[in-house]
Each structure stands twice: as C-alpha cells, then as structure tokens.
C-alpha cells in the first residue's frame, strides 16, 4: 500500500526528511515540536545540493530528532538545559557521518550558569560578532563610557544562551561569505554546517521555555535572540522569514509596556529610570546595564517597526508608544543607534499611519475628510520646521571646520536625508507619482547628499532614502541608483537581502512608463515587504 500523498509545498526541512507536510506558517508544527530548524517555503536552501552538504544536514536533523524524542519520553525538561553540539565531521574536513556519530560528538550540558570558558572556535566567532558584525548592524552606536560602553552587550551574550548562539551563527555566516572565494568545497561545506549548528541550537533553546521552564531573568526574554535571528534571516536572503521574528519581538515589547515592564524582571530602580527618563551617570553598574540594554532594544525595535511599515503599507505596531518614546525628555535617542534623529522618525511613523488610514477609507472620504487633511498639513509643517531648524547645507557651506566635523559625525547628514524621505513619502502616500515636479527641490537636495556629501562608510545607512528616491528617479539619475545597489559598500557578500532592491526598482521604473496613475500602494505590491536596512 502506497504512503500518504504529500504536497509539494512543504517546508524544506520536511522535504529533506521526507515527512508529511502540515504547511503551517511561518514555521511548520513538525519542525517546532522536534526543535529542529524549519527552513520555510522560500527558495531552495544552498545546502540542498544532492551532495555532501545535504547529507550532512540530514544527519544533523536525525541526531536532533533522536535526542529530542528521548528527552520528551524521559521528561527531561528541567531548569538546566542540555545543548547537544550537532557538529558533523565535515567541520573537521570529513563528510562521512552517521547520526550516531553526530549524537556522540562533543555533547555538553549547560547548567543554569554560563560556562566559565569558551572553546577556541566559539571565542573567535564571538569576537568577530563584537568587533565586526554588531558594528556592521549599528555603525553609529557609540555608547557613552559613563554608561558602561558596550559592556551590556557582552554581558547579555554570555548569560543569554539563545542570543549567544544566534550571534555565533551570524558570525559564522559572515566568515563563510567573506572567505568563500578562498575556501575549497569541503571547507565551504564545513563552514555551512558550523553556521547551521549554531542556528539550530539557538532555535531549540528559544523553544524550551514553552515546554514549562521559566527564565530567571525576565529581561533576557525580550526576544533579543529573535532580533538577531531576524537579522540572520534577512542577511542570508530568507525572503520574508524576518517578519515572523519581528512580529514576535514587537508583541513582547508591547506586552511589557502594557504591564509597565513588570514582566521583564527589571530591578525597581531600572524601571523607575526607564519610565521617568532619568540619566544613568551615578547609577550602580547592574542598573545601568539593564537600562542601557532596554533603551537600545527599544530604539532598535521602534526603528525596525517604522522601516517595515513603509513597505508593508501598515501603521507601525508600536505607533501608540511613539509620543512617549519621542518626547523631548526621552532617553531613547535613535540618532545614537541608527543615526537618524527622533523628530524625523516620528514623522515617518505618522505618514505610515496616515497611509494605513487612507487605505481603509473610501476615495470620497480621503478627499473630503478634514481630519486626514489636517494630519497631512501638520506632518508637512513639522518636516519643513525641522529642515529649516537644522539646514544641513547652510551649516555645511558656512565653515570648512564645521564641514570636517560633520564628516566625522554624520548624524546631521543622515537626519537631513531622512527628512527628505519623509517629505517624499508624504507626497507618494497622498498623490503617488503625479505632480512629481512639486518635490523637485526635495529631490535635488537628496541627490546632492547622495552624490556629493555621503562618506563611503555612511552610505549603507542610506538604504531607505536610496530606495524611495530611486523609485522616483529621473532618467539621468537611474544609473547612479543602479551602481549604488549593485556594488559595495551598500551591497556586500553578507547582505544578501539588498540584492533584491535593484530588481524591484527596475520593475517600478518599467511600470512608471506603462502606467500614468501609478500609486504608492502599487509600488508596495512590487516591493514584496522588503526591509530597508
């Protein structure tokens, strides 16, 4: 008797394991229940090669399933967790492995405290993450020495095991991409297995609290590993897999604020500082660490939420928290994390919310609603006021010493570029590609920044401005955007998601020629919910 018919739309993990598919999204139930990585429903993973990498991955899944099944049968879930290193011999130069060899190789138990030593490979990857990956993600984050610098990050990595392994997975991917041209096939397979080993451990550890254990430090549960997995999925080109992780992190952040941060295990003093936006200079080290940690994560989530809303066509999910987060006295300063000042981010969030409101309204309501017209007028006024108050070009042309200072501290440049984005974005939401001549001054200012004033190291922070102005590019400027999105520093081997942007712009340019009434909503259909980072 033949086996059950299986759909051809199952996740890649289940296809490799030749199991019946449930096709749940974003991760299938079978993979989650067995604590193995669900590779989703997008393009075929690079390890699916009908060769050594695929066999090694299959052996890895077999070993994990065997251990997971035994642990469930024995009721193993206790306060301390066992992490099995699923390293095939491919990582040591051999590709002939059995699941029993994988299971027995270098099994170690992590007790409630993190181990006091790291092996050489973990140490190398950890420092790669701290020295290169994190600065690549947040090039403008330079915390004050009086607030402890980046010490909170090292502390968080060493006490939060899922985050630790997520960071190692990201570092392993980065190392593999950088060295891909100098490694032979066997070494590349070994590097891929190493990367997937860390990722699988991270996801398995993230799933453990749902089995009944409760972490001792609630702050560690702010889905910090989820943010790193989000970036891992994004950088490795896993299409829209990042959305599920961002959604989970945003939900957790919202729930925390609804409970006044009581469910994050913060010290009372830390909660007071966060709610009253107090300075940290004279606080104890543990209080500083908690507060700086939470402020950084809050700023990161607010920014990712705003950027994702631009191409999703929705209001930011944290929009109701913006008045407090962007208040004058707020200690959350996006400029210190992503280089863009709060006032611009707030207006971009308002425009995204306006777009969502307009999409929910009928055409007649959009044209006649006093509330919507008033919102458009107020946003426009705030953008113009911000540009006039902090005119980048007036400052730049006033004094060569100031110009040199701006090159070393490009926050004003980035803020000005995003202010131009806000102005263009508002136009696109209200009028689409019609009457583009009304934003000629905005367009010219943005192109002047892109062509004349952006240092090489700053250009990767301009992905969103480059995309939006690329969408309305004049014919003579299209090659500039083609070059920007097809070469370093915007494009790099570790930033696979940016490879999608230029083809999307080409589609928008082609559609503009054939459609006279193209709208921003039409562009979003072509953009496929990309994240502009």
Give a written overview of the molecule:
One of its GO terms (biological process) is positive regulation of transcription by RNA polymerase II. One of its GO terms (cellular component) is nucleus. Residues 5-49 form the Zn(2)-C6 fungal-type domain. Its main location: nucleus. The protein is an all-alpha fold. It has a domain at 339-527. It has helices at 12-17, 29-34, 52-74, 99-104, 120-137, 151-159, 161-179, 185-207, 224-235, 242-258, 268-276, 285-312, 322-325, 342-360, 363-368, 370-389, 392-398, 400-408, 411-431, 440-453, 463-471, 478-484, 501-514, 520-527, and strands at 81-84, 107-110. A two-stranded antiparallel sheet has the order 1-2. Helix 16 packs antiparallel against helix 19. The longest helix is centred in the middle third of the chain and has 28 residues, at 285-312. Residues 1-7, 70-116 and 210-221 have low confidence and may be disordered.
Summary keywords:
2 strands, mainly alpha, 533 residues, two-stranded antiparallel ribbon, globular, disordered N terminus
């Amino acid at each position: 008797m033949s086996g059950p018919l299986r759909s051809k739309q199952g996740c890649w993990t289940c296809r490799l394991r030749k199991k019946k598919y449930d096709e749940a999204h974003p991760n299938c139930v079978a993979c989650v229940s067995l604590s193995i990585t669900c590779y989703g429903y997008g393009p075929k993973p690079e390890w699916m090669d009908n060769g050594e990498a695929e066999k090694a991955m299959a052996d890895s899944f077999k070993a994990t399933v065997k251990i997971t099944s035994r642990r469930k049968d024995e009721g193993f879930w206790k306060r301390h967790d066992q992490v099995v290193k699923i390293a095939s011999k491919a990582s040591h130069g051999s590709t002939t492995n059995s699941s029993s060899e994988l299971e027995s190789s270098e099994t170690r138990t992590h007790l409630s405290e993190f181990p006091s030593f790291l092996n050489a490979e973990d140490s190398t990857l950890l420092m790669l993450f701290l020295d290169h990956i994190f600065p690549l993600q947040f090039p403008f984050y330079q915390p004050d020495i009086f607030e402890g610098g980046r010490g909170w990050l090292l502390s968080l990595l060493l006490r939060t095991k899922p985050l630790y392994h997520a960071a190692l997975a990201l570092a392993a991917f980065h190392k593999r991409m950088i060295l891909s041209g100098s490694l032979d096939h066997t070494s590349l397979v070994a590097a891929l297995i190493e990367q997937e080993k860390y990722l699988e451990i991270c996801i398995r550890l993230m799933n453990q609290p749902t089995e009944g254990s409760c972490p001792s430090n609630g702050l560690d549960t702010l889905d910090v590993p989820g943010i790193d997995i989000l970036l891992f999925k994004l950088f490795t080109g896993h299409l829209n897999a990042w959305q599920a992780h961002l959604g989970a992190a945003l939900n957790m952040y919202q729930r925390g604020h609804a409970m006044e941060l009581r469910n994050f295990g913060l010290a009372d003093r830390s909660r007071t500082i966060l709610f009253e936006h107090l300075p940290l200079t004279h606080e104890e080290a543990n209080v500083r660490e908690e507060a700086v940690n939470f402020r950084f994560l809050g700023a990161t989530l607010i920014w990712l939420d705003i950027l994702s809303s631009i191409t999703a066509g929705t209001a930011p999910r944290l929009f109701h928290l913006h008045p407090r987060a962007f208040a004058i006295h707020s200690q959350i300063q996006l400029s210190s994390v992503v280089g863009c000042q709060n006032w611009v981010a707030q207006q971009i969030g308002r425009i995204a919310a306006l777009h969502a409101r307009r999409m929910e309204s009928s055409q007649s309501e959009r044209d006649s609603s006093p509330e919507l017209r008033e919102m458009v007028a107020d946003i426009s006024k705030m953008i113009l006021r911000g540009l006039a108050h902090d005119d980048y070009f007036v400052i730049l042309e006033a004094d060569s010493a100031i110009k040199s200072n701006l090159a070393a501290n490009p926050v004003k440049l980035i803020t000005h570029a995003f202010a131009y984005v806000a102005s263009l974005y508002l136009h696109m939401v209200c009028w689409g590609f019609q009457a583009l001549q009304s934003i000629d001054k905005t367009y010219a200012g943005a192109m002047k920044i892109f062509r004349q004033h952006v240092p090489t190291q700053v250009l990767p922070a301009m992905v969103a401005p480059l995309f939006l102005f690329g969408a309305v590019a004049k014919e003579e400027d299209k090659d500039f955007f083609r070059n920007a999105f097809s070469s370093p520093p915007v494009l790099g081997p570790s930033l696979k998601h940016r490879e999608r942007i230029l083809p999307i712009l080409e589609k928008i340019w082609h559609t503009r020629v054939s459609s006279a009434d193209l709208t921003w909503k039409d562009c979003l259909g072509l953009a496929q919910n990309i994240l502009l980072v």
